[in-house]
Design brief:
Layout (H helix, E strand, L loop, with lengths): L1 H15 L17 H16 L1 H10 L3 E7 H4 L2 H10 L2 E4 L4 E7 L7 E3 L7 H11 L12 H7 L11 H14 L2 E8 L4 H10 L5 H10 L1 H25 L13 E9 L4 H17 L3 E7 L5 H5 L1 H14 L4 E6 L15 H7 L5 E4 L9 H11 L2 E4 L1 H8 L8 H6 L4 E3 L4 H4 L3 H11 L4 H13 L35 H8 L2 H17 L3
Helix pairs in contact: 2-3, 3-20, 8-11, 9-12, 11-12, 12-14, 21-23
Length: about 525
């Protein structure tokens, strides 16, 4: 296959270390603490023992943040079935989907109450397989790509449970020693879509924005979207008893949201929803940025990609403080024509103002790929690496994946799950997969955990001095010699208390100290 031939060529290029590859001076090497060295040895021993031992190691290891998580895709199929039964939703057994438009006992012909699923083991198993990648084997006409994306239309979502979904994901994160999540979600935007359809597409974005903002339905949607996000967090906090004596461990996981924009629709709707996302993110501190979702290879997503980057370029100028991360390069040869692989990541960085790139799998097919990766390293544009997702959707694995190339070129990277419920994984699984597949050391994994917090869309200064490439092992002068302590002192305390990002980074280092001194 073409991408495999490119990967083999890449291996030769990297081994030769030609002058056009990324070269930057690194900070002076520091003496590694004994505890850190013992932990590195423990990882080496776990690697020799196999994946189960690696899972036990990484489940305990502090992993910082998961920055690429679709909320609905993170919910396991068993939860969907349980909630559908609670809500008396009807299930279509032939199509293996829930029908949220009908409720028992008034299920139409061919449908039955979801409450009956638990007593039909065969149907129960079929629904789990239809809602996820469990047991999936690609066949002609049903690829991993198609099966994966078809799951989202089967759930029959009831937003009343959204806080429960947040609790499920946060609880899973807490059990794995994660501390921060950015969850992608799309609140209701139907009134805004209707207003955009009535107005019709206007290429004059300034005028189109003014028309939308003048529409009462648009202003009401800003408030209702904020209320939806607030309600999710309140429900999650109530479930977990946050702030009470019996608070669940999940309360220690900080949750923020990314506003999902659906890019597979006509330009007037995409612009209107993007504008709504910028407005909500500007007003709500719990919404820390925006992202475009839906398959990147879809007809409209491909046709309008450059136009959508133009929309982002314009709106970034109006709302420069709103963070942007973009799905870009979630493509592989054969999925789209060759020319479709040549520009998405570059336009996301240069026109879309993306501070992070989700997936970035087709980087080797971009025009001027080496220059682009140097630019990403210089700009500190991080890549959210989703190994399992890329394997099941794109069939890109191992040396065919650019993960190690990004690291070689000094582009910041961090592991993430994408849709852990659909993929039947967790973040620890992704760490194990990386350890089994690539020659990564404990320090490499530690850097990725630090990178995940460093590139979180949190306000405030960082604890780390930034070099190019990023090493994140040289703290700012005020905090030198204090990382790993329970509490900061002096000027470091002033920095930490004034910065949400520094608070998360301080907590990560405290957890690393506890973890490493346990060996």
């Amino acid at each position: 296959m073409p991408h495999r031939r490119a990967a083999r060529l890449l291996t030769l290029l990297l081994a030769a270390s030609p002058s056009f590859l990324f070269v930057r001076a690194a900070p002076a090497a520091q003496t590694r603490p004994i505890a850190e060295m013992r932990t590195a040895h423990a990882l080496d021993e776990a690697r020799q023992q196999g994946p189960d031992a690696l899972y036990a190691f990484f489940a305990r290891m502090p992993k910082g943040a998961d920055l690429h998580v679709h909320l609905s895709g993170a919910v396991y199929a068993e939860t969907w079935i349980h909630e559908a039964a609670e809500d008396n939703i009807c299930v279509n057994a032939a199509q293996l989907r829930f029908d949220a438009g009908h409720h028992a006992p008034d299920c139409p012909a061919g449908e039955s109450p979801a409450a009956a699923v638990s007593s039909d083991q065969h149907l129960y198993d079929e629904l789990i397989d239809a809602f996820s990648m469990r047991s999936f084997i690609p066949v002609t006409g049903d690829s991993g790509h198609d099966h994966f994306f078809s799951t989202f239309g089967r759930f029959g979502e009831e937003d009343v449970h959204a806080g429960e979904w947040v609790d499920e994901v946060a609880s899973r994160a807490a059990a794995q020693n994660e501390q921060y999540l950015e969850l992608m979600d799309t609140p209701d935007f139907k009134p805004v879509a209707a207003a955009a359809a009535t107005l019709g597409w206007d290429p004059n974005l300034t005028e189109f924005r003014q028309k939308l903002l003048a529409d009462p339905a648009f202003r009401e949607s800003i408030a209702s979207n904020r209320a939806a996000f607030d309600g999710m967090l309140r429900q999650r906090n109530a479930i977990e008893h946050c702030g009470q004596a019996d608070a669940a461990p999940a309360c220690a996981v900080t949750v923020r949201f990314l506003y999902q924009v659906l890019r597979g629709y006509p330009p007037q709707q995409v612009f209107a929803q993007t504008l709504l996302g910028f407005e909500v993110a500007s007003a709500d501190p719990n919404v820390v940025g925006i992202n475009y979702v839906m398959p990147e290879d879809g007809y409209i997503a491909m046709r309008d990609y450059t136009l959508q980057m133009h929309m982002l370029d314009y709106l970034h100028g109006v709302y420069p403080k709103v963070h942007i991360t973009l799905h870009a390069g979630e493509l592989a040869p054969g999925l789209v024509p060759p020319e479709g692989l040549t520009f998405h990541i570059r336009q996301a960085v240069e026109q879309g103002h993306a501070e992070r790139i989700g997936h970035g799998v087709d980087i080797m097919y971009e025009d001027h790929r080496w220059q682009l990766m140097r630019e990403m390293a210089d700009r500190h544009v991080m890549v959210e690496i989703n190994l399992t997702s890329n394997a099941v959707i794109l069939n890109v694995t191992g040396n065919d994946h650019p993960f190690m190339l990004y690291r070689k070129m000094g582009v910041p990277v961090a592991l993430s799950t994408d849709d852990e419920g659909v993929s039947r994984i967790d973040l620890t699984h992704e760490y194990v997969r990386a350890a089994v597949t690539y020659p990564l050391t404990y320090l490499d994994f530690k850097l990725m955990a630090r990178t995940s917090i460093e590139h979180a869309f949190l306000p405030g200064a960082s604890l780390w001095q930034r070099f190019t490439p990023e090493h994140l092992d040289a703290p700012v002068a005020a905090c030198r010699g204090q990382l790993g302590n329970e509490t900061p002192a002096g000027m470091c305390a002033t920095l930490v208390h004034s910065s949400e990002k520094a608070q998360q980074e301080w907590e990560l280092e405290r957890r690393f100290h506890q973890f490493e001194t346990s060996f």
